[in-house]
DNA sequence: CGAAGAACGTCCGAGTCAAGATGTTCTGAT
DNA sequence: ATCAGAACATCTTGACTCGGACGTTCTTCG
């Protein structure tokens, strides 16, 4: 990877799209550094978090749709998490097609630790702004992020 | 691609990282839809825009660093643009290693049209917010996007 | 019942991305 | 002048993404 220019060098053409992607890139990198210490990807942590808060009520497809992950991408992520013993795919007695992902105790443990660490990272970002600014930012991001239509490329 | 859940279904765990990525995803998709009408990717448009505003003063490496693109990714993008006759790689008489990317008249033409169309799309997003909000959002994104350290994965 | 269609998880293949290696050219120090 | 090292563009390689196809299972309707 090349050394990136500090941003001020090219201020003329900053459109929302580029800014958003770049910001997501940066924040994502900070998150990735943190989750790497726990041996999971940010996506893995995201999945674990969802499973921890939402007790095995979701099929793999629903889970992927909720998190904005492609089904095959979620598959390989679940494979990794399962191999690491952090989740289990539990057959649904009611519907034999379904193999509900369930977080294990080990997974819950790790998720809690990683989640706390990430909260710290996130707080560092939040502290760059006032409370009022954060409220605006949050509302704006939710506004932009929300929407019914499925999205093409994920990169989550 | 699966139908995505409307966002409100899972509000508990929205961290900045996820919101940013999702927002970037959505806005990026809107931009991609628009640029597709002109036969280029958003990334292609980004490169053209940079070249149009910055008259062939950058090597490929510098250009990639400025835009946050990996050198190999930029390479293949330049290949496409060159094949489409939108740019040229001009040998630098001063330094035979360098093949400076230059936008062609055709490229400039297309960039202008696509740029106008994208400005329209962007305005639609801006109109969701007040002027004061936009100022906050813009400052916040610049704050987050800025930074010296190179970033791992691009996805731009 | 039985058949048609939908939903689930999985697999496959084309396309994309980026780290590292390579060959050429430039620069700076001896 | 020459040699070592850096910079540039390119190529190679391995991993990842994602749309689409597949087999199984469920549901609905005749």
From TrEMBL, chains A, B:
Membrane-spanning ranges: none
GO molecular function: DNA binding
Residue span, HTH marR-type domain: 13-146
Signal listed as a keyword: no
Key words of the record: DNA-binding, Transcription, Transcription regulation
Pfam families linked: MarR
Database matches in PANTHER family: MARR FAMILY REGULATORY PROTEIN, TRANSCRIPTIONAL REGULATOR, MARR FAMILY
Designated name of the protein: DNA-binding MarR family transcriptional regulator
High-level lineage: Bacteria, Bacillati, Actinomycetota, Actinomycetes, Pseudonocardiales
């Amino acid at each position: 990877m090349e050394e990136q220019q500090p941003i001020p060098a090219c201020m003329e053409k900053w459109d929302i799209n580029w800014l958003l992607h770049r910001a997501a890139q940066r924040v994502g990198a900070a998150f990735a550094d943190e989750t790497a210490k726990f041996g999971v990807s940010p996506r893995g942590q995201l999945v674990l978090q969802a499973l921890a808060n939402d007790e095995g009520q979701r099929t793999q497809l629903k889970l992927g749709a909720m998190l904005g992950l492609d089904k095959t991408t979620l598959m390989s992520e679940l494979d990794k998490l399962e191999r690491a013993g952090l989740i289990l795919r539990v057959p649904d007695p009611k519907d034999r097609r379904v193999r509900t992902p369930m977080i294990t105790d080990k997974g819950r443990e790790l998720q809690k630790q990683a989640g706390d660490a990430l909260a710290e990272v996130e707080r560092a970002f939040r502290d760059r702004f006032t409370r009022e600014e954060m409220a605006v930012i949050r509302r704006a991001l939710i506004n932009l992020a929300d929407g019914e239509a499925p999205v093409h490329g994920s990169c989550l």
